[in-house]
């Protein structure tokens, strides 16, 4: 059974691109347009093995989304990758300090993204 990735990004272009890259590698993909949509999809999907999320999104940003995911025991160990245009040291530190496993700055090279996802999934 393929590993399931949840992509959370308010940019349809980014969602579609990352989904295409991950599906090409054999992953099952679910896409969400912001943190609230991401939580809804996380709660209704059978199993999510890894989350890729943006930080700057309407309704619920990525920081709040990650904190909410990490507060719940059932989701605490899901690897989370931040994929954001915010590349300042303080942004990276903020993402990692609230529970992201990895922080990547857009535009990320597809092969590096895939390698990191595979590494986090073991």
From TrEMBL:
Gene: cheY
Gene3D superfamilies: 3.40.50.2300
SUPFAM superfamilies documented for this protein: CheY-like
PANTHER family given in the database record: CHEMOTAXIS TWO-COMPONENT RESPONSE REGULATOR, STRESS RESPONSE REGULATOR PROTEIN 1
Species assigned in the record: Solidesulfovibrio magneticus (strain ATCC 700980 / DSM 13731 / RS-1)
Taxonomic lineage: Bacteria, Pseudomonadati, Thermodesulfobacteriota, Desulfovibrionia, Desulfovibrionales
The UniProt record lists the keyword Transferase: no
InterPro entries: Bact_response_regulator, CheY-like_superfamily, Sig_transdc_resp-reg_receiver
Top-level division of the source organism's lineage: Bacteria
Record bears the keyword Hydrolase: no
4-aspartylphosphate: residues carrying this PTM: 54
Record GO biological process: phosphorelay signal transduction system
Annotated protein name in UniProt: Chemotaxis protein CheY
Residue ranges of every copy of the Response regulatory domain listed in the record: 4-121
Keywords: Phosphoprotein
């Amino acid at each position: 059974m393929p590993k399931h990735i949840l992509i959370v990004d308010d940019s349809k272009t980014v969602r579609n691109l990352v989904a295409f890259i991950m599906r090409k590698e054999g992953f099952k993909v679910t896409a969400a347009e912001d943190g609230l949509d991401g939580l809804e999809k996380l709660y209704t999907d059978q199993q999510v093995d890894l989350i890729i999320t943006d930080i700057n999104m309407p309704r619920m940003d990525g920081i709040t989304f990650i904190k909410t995911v990490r507060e719940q025991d059932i989701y605490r160990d899901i690897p989370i990758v931040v994929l954001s245009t915010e590349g300042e040291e303080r942004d990276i530190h903020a993402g990692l300090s609230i529970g992201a496993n990895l922080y990547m700055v857009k535009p990320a090279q597809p092969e590096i993204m895939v390698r990191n996802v595979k590494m986090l999934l073991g």
